[in-house]
Amino acid sequence: MLLTSTGGSMISMFAIWGVFIVVMYFIMVRPQKKEQKRLAAMLDSLEVGDVVVTTSGFYGVLIDITDEDVIVEFGSNRNCRIPMKKAAIQEVEKQN
């Protein structure tokens, strides 16, 4: 009789842990993967002339795009062109 009650509590403990792991997946891992996919799609759709916002909060216009880098022009004087990684782009506003 003692073994039966111990076996039942072990099964319920594993069930609770299983439910906990599934809930944590849907709360933490899944939204992060969704955001990574959204960001990758945004970076793949970059075009010259798009207005971008960098992770540091600067607005600029894309001048040139390579595989991993971009050249962004900041300000209205057209003399401030800075090369940076694509990963430094946080938002894109498409040129109409």
Give a structural overview.
The protein contains 1 helix and 5 strands; from the N terminus they run αβββββ. It is of the alpha+beta class and 96 residues long. A 5-stranded antiparallel β-sheet has the order 4-3-2-1-5, with helices on one face. The longest helix has 43 residues, at 2-44. The protein is rod-shaped, with a radius of gyration of 24 Å. The mean pLDDT is 88.
Question: In summary, what is this structure?
Answer:
The chain has one helix and five strands, in the order αβββββ. With 96 residues, it is α+β, with helices and mostly antiparallel strands.
Could you state the order of secondary-structure elements as H and E?
HEEEEE
Q: How many DSSP H or I helices?
A: 1
Beta fraction: 25-35%
Q: In terms of per-residue confidence, which ranges show pLDDT below 50 for 5 or more consecutive residues?
A: none
| Coarse shape | rod-shaped
Termini separation comes to 76 Å
Q: What keywords describe this structure?
A:
single chain; 96 residues; alpha+beta; SH3 type barrels; 2 domains; five-stranded antiparallel β-sheet; 1 helix
Task: Show the helix and strand layout.
Layout: H1 2-44, E1 51-54, E2 59-65, E3 69-74, E4 80-85, E5 89-93
Antiparallel strand pairs: 1-2, 1-5, 2-3, 3-4
